[in-house]
Amino acid sequence: MCGICGILNTALEPAAYRASIDRMSGRLVHRGPDSQGKFELPHLALAIRRLSIIDLETGDQPLSNETGDVILVFNGEIYNYRELRKELLDRGHRFRTHSDGEVIAHLYEERGLDFVCELNGMFAIALWDQERNRLVLARDRAGEKPLYYWQRNHTLVFGSEIKSLLEYPEVGRAPDVEAVQQYLLFGYVPSPRSIFQEIRKLPAGCLMVAEGGAIRMAPYWQLGDHLRPPGGARASEAEGDPVKELRVRLRDAAVSRLVSDVPLGVFLSGGVDSSALVALMSELAPGQVNTFSVAFAEKSFNEESYSTFVARYFKTQHHVLRADEPALHQGLRELASRLDEPLADPAVIPTFLLSRFARDHIKVALSGEGSDELFGGYPTYLGAQLAHYYLRLPGPLRRQLFARLKAFLPVSSNAVPMGLFLRRFLSHAEKDPAERHLTWFGMFTPAELDQISGPGLSQEPPASIQALAPLHEVTKGVVFENALAEALYLDFCLYLADDLLVKIDRASMACSLELRTPFLDHRLVEFAAGLPVSLKVRRFQLKHVLKKAVEPWLPSEVVYRQKRGFSVPIAGWLRNELQPTVNEMLSEVRLKKEGLFNPIFVRRLIKEHMQAQADHRKTLWTLLCFELWYEHWAKG
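Below the sequence we write its predicted structure tokens.
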């Protein structure tokens, strides 16, 4: 795992501010504290900070082919590098190292731009073709590894994190207004935008090629190409085969991610995803698997009993981090100086604390991210099922039912979460499936977004319309089996790529720890995408096919329990430990000065939440995370 960055003058003239490459690289040292490297030409600079995982002695970068005319730096791991290396050796290629990265240079030499289709792994690649004067940037299919870029005139600047690009003198810090609106709605900034107006993300599964003075970009992989088409055979006709096939593919994916020359472990919540990974690792190394969990003082959020049960069942070397409110508060403050984009996912804090805790024991950990989006693990998917049946009712009956229930349902309250769910469900069930799913799952609703917008965000068309654009962009031209299939697709392309994978990358790499995600093996992803959704959510049982696949590996009490994951009890935290921070960062004076948010609307949210009249945890947390980011990064 590493951090990479670079500067290119696409006209092949001397690159301006090329000396900035050292400062850019220096901002990525947490991603690669073990070594550094650099390649320079008058018009080009590539730099790398390396966290050595494979080939500790000879794997330093930059790497090249035999003739030295293909040079690369890359961040990530190539899990099929041994197979690729053998094939390339058989075809006459000569290698200087045993690293996975050197395979990329030789593969490009043979396949050209199609080289990326052969790679199984997580990666962000920068490759210079000296013969063609061509720079190639590539990002893995799911978006596990980040890559940001800035372009003006003939200059292209890129890096693994935004903070690296901000070291280039011409890159501005002005926020992107539409990105801020999207952040408020989603809780993260969907690709290709970043929170900064001048900086963009290379989307997952994309290639960027700078050649002949021009820059072009295109996807080399899209999940939509692997989705099950509408009208396929019923799932029940041959359910046994998908279960067995999934079992084989999951085992292969997990085993391939155990390739390492340093110690590994597993982040264990006690849910089916992480427990399945523990089971597979324990087959290979019984009694030697390191597992790591976080425990909260608040019982309703504490999953220690489940993770401890799994650890004892498989006889792992188990390590538990106890996170109280002061520790979480300290983690929040530390992350404000590390997260160069706002992220309203509170689980980033325990993930960061657990990564730092685990780094004292291991250098690589496995994580269960991706399973929920592929196999239907979120309760919101039950909403899509309910909406399917609800919308079958005649319109007058639906309106009558909603009017009668509405009088008895709370506006917002901690005490009655089912009532809260029903109110939100009934209020949005008849919307477009994509917008409906986001409204159930998102932070602010579209209506609230128009209310929260201050002078600096108010535009034409309204903020709510602009912020919904990523939904329509990502689903354009894609045909879905049903509304549930569309929700799964949206979560994979948006929530997973731009929230969950950002969370685990930044939290782990801030501690120089590599996290690997077996469920995102592209062969497993493609197989899962082609399964009928009725195998994933069956009779309101989530992850049906996955649970059937892992039944032989796990106790039934693990398979059929609800997974919470690394969550944070933020509702009470905002009212207690964090209340002074909320009052400071969301004060009326501060908000008026910035001009982004409506201070009267925010003041009402704070008052209702602090007096327990309503539960505004999601909206207040989203605003607080933004203000902490704005204070540190937008103001410089």
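Residues 410-418 have pLDDT under 50 and may be disordered.
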